[in-house]
Structure formats: structure tokens, C-alpha cells
Amino acid sequence: MAEIDRAGGTPAVPGDWTYAPAPESRDIVHLRDRYGLFIGGRWVEAAESYETISPSTEETLAVIGQASAENVDEAVAAARTAFADGWSSLAGSERAKYLFRIARILQERAREFAVLESLNGGKPIKESRDVDIPLAAAHFFYYAGWADKLEYAFPNRTPKPVGVAGQIIPWNFPLLMLAWKIAPALACGNTVVLKPAETTPLTALLFCDVLRQAELPPGVVNIVTGDGRTGAALVENDDVDKIAFTGSTEVGKAIQRRLAGSGKKLTLELGGKAANIVFDDCALDQAVEGIVNGIYFNQGHVCCAGSRLFAQESIYEPLVEKLKHRLETLRVGDPLDKNTDVGAINSAMQLEKIKELVESGREEGAEIYQPACRLPEKGYWFAPTVFTNVAQSYRIAQEEIFGPVLSVLTFRTPDEALEKANNTPYGLSAGVWTEKGSRILWMAQRLRAGVVWANTYNRFDPTSPFGGYKESGFGREGGLHGLEPYLRFDE
Ligand code: NDP
To answer: By the number of CB atoms within 10 A of the CB, which of 162, 274, 363, 368 ranks highest?
Structure first.
């Protein structure tokens, strides 16, 4: 803590407000040196392997199996056997018991998962502790509740499981994306083969231990680690009935092309370039908090990040000034420090991509602002960044940066805000800041976005469906809508 200033007999006040380090202990996490693939309830060695690191220190954490196409086929076969051997015909109330157990175990082991998530992914511990892990448990609780009520969810229809679901998830919310995928699939009576992202496999591998504790029958959930080749092998496997993918638009399109005409079900949750629209009648300080949460949460590695800020011209100057002031207070650094607001960039590759797009912003003529902050020497870091003077045609206003970089644009009327906000190939999310309820509804009806937040941003709830329009993908995850992709209704 800073030195206390006692000059002149005045009351003691801190001389400076810097925070003392408050690191969360790593001791709760017990990593193995190497991990195999989790197939049919057993650990299977992969022929090839790679190292997974901590992006904040670049230290190696463990050696991970690179699943081959044969391994993937084996996992799909295990899932098929488990599906046929009882899981699909188990009473919904029995399936629910497993899901409730998984949810409770995640809660019991929450600190362990939070530390591991921050270690492997680079996100601040206060986010993994307060957002990722509690929400992952909440998804299992929520879908456990639906497992024996599917007939009520879809009255006068006969919901049946689809079969084996192949699930491919990204690195920005590793355990949460796993929960979004596995919980509804199991609730509906499917079995799954899930591939975590190459850079963040560790919480998915720890989750296998939760499955063991919950005594889930072997083969109901299989985890195959590896890079994009493993994901491609899962898509290629003819015995998979459904693919659920979250990741880049580019890979999503390739998967859609591959599955066209195959009859397999597909949901795609892809990128975004969300508009966060601030009207002059809003509570400005509250909006500033929402803007910061919208783009710097999880280093901006968020598909629904509010990466385009639209400020009404009349408040542009005070808003940008307040925003810059607020940026100065963000603490960038050790993800395991409980005071950290912005952690490490997930990988060297992602850091390169962010740098390249930021450079294009400078070259195209935007004005860059970054608060003074000292970045650690080791690891992958990028300072919170705001671009002003941005034209709609600039790459930083069009392309998904997936980093802590905000582009500020302006508008005069609601119509203009709407037109500019919808001027994007994406359509995942949007934010509206105004005190007028009627304006919120007017905007929400016209914004081409799957989620519209009003006077808040980046709020998630398992009961609420999430998904996109246009190049942000199709299908919904969460809520009642999230059951449908895992069911068929033929008689
Ligand atoms: P990808 O789309 O490549 O990765 C998402 C998942 O798909 C990962 O598990 C990946 O494996 C896997 N994958 C990669 N190639 C294939 C393939 N041909 N067939 C099947 N599965 C595949 O995203 P990146 O991690 O490369 O990130 C690139 C950009 O994508 C980011 O900069 C960001 O803009 C965007 N993105 C968007 C996300 C979102 O939530 N909408 C999430 C992540 C990224 P592996 O990790 O091994 O490559």
C-alpha cells in the first residue's frame, strides 16, 4: 500500500492510490505433466502432442494430445455406443440428476477452475471467478431443469434427441462455451464429442474429472484436444448428427460449405462488430462504465464486444473525455491478481492480428489514444486503446479486431445511428444508452442484432437466447431456444 502522507498535522491520506499486489494462489490447481484424450470415459494417448502455455508468462503448463482423425472417429464411436446403450432412452429426470451433479461440482470446485482458466487463457481472475465459472454452473443448473420437461417446452410435438453432437469451441470463454454446448445437448438426450481450442484446453480437461465425480456414464461426453485439424476431422466424420461451432466467420463458412446437403444439423456462432449507441439523454457516467465493460472485458476477446462506439454529436466531447479519464484507471497485468482489469492477450497470433489492425487504423488516419501503462516484459499484452476520428470505411470500423480496441464514431439522429449501426456484415449484438424507454424499443426493433442490451452491456443469463444474424451465424444458444438445435421432431 502507498505511503501515508502525514504532512502538516492534517488527517492521514494515502500519498498515492496504486494498488498493492493481490495475487490469487496457484496452489489449488494440480496440473499433470501431460494429458491424453478423454474417450469412452478413459484417457487415451495421442500419437502427437503439443505444449500449452500461460499467455501472461509464456511458461509451459502441460503437454496436450493432438487428436488424429482416427482418434476423433474413436471418440464418435464411443459417443454413438453411449447414445444407443441407454443415454438417449434414460428418463429425463435421471439425465437431470447428472446435470445437477455437474453443476454442483463446478460450484464446489469454482476456485480451482477460475485459477486454471486465468492461467491458461490470460483473463483476469475477477472475471473467471465472477463471470465464467458461475455462469458455466448456471447453464448446467438451467438445462438440468429442462431435461424432464421437453414435452412441455414443445407442446403437441414429440421431441427426440438428435444423436451424436460434434462441438467445436473457441479460446475466449473456454469453460463457459463448453457449458453452453454440453448442457443443452445432454439435457435433450444426446451424447457429445467436444473439441476445445488449441490454446485453452486445460479447463475442458479438468472438466473430465468433474464427469468422473458425477459418475456420468462413459462415452456420453468425450473431449478431443488438438488444433484445427482435429476440428476439421470432427466435421468430416459421417457418424456425427449435428455440429455446433463457435469461432471465426471464416471457419464457420468452411464448415457450412462442407455440411451443405449432408442433412446434418448445424449451428454457427461467429464473429461480431457490435454498435454501442450512446444518446445525449443517457446517464453519461453509467454509459462510460458500460462502454468500458463492453470492449475491455476479457481483453475484447468477445464476439459480442461493443467495439464500435456511436456517440451522439452533442455529447461526443464530454463522453470521450470521461472515457479517456476512465481508461487511465484500468489496471493491466497479471491475470491472477485480483485487482487486474485487463489481462493478457490469448496468444502471440492474436496479438499480431490486433497489432496489424491497429496499425491499419493509424495509417488510414484515425487518432489513437492509449493510457500510460507499463506492460509486463514477458507474455502477450496490448494496452487498452481508443480510436477517434474513425470513418465507417476504415478496417477498424469494419473488421473484428477481437482485442481491447474501441473505434468511436458519431451520429446526430436515431435514424442515422441505426443506419450506421446496421452497416456491417455482422449482426450479433448491440447496446443502446438512453433514458427513453420508447427509444430503446424503437431501436431494438430495427437493429439487426441477435441481442440488444439497453443501458447495460455484456450481460449473460442462461435463460436468455444468444445468437446472430448475417455473418454472425445462425441458431440460438441459451434459453428455451437453445434446446431446439439438439432435438428432432419427426414422429
Ligand atoms: P477459429 O475459428 O479458427 O477457431 C475456433 C475453433 O475452431 C477452435 O477450436 C479451432 O481450433 C477450430 N478450428 C479451426 N480450424 C478449423 C476447421 N477447419 N474445421 C473445424 N474446426 C476448426 O478462430 P481462431 O482461434 O483462429 O481466431 C481467429 C479469429 O476468429 C479471432 O481473431 C476472432 O476474430 C474470431 N473468433 C471469434 C470467436 C467468437 O466467439 N465468435 C471466438 C474465437 C475467435 P484451434 O483452436 O485449434 O485452431
So the answer is: 274
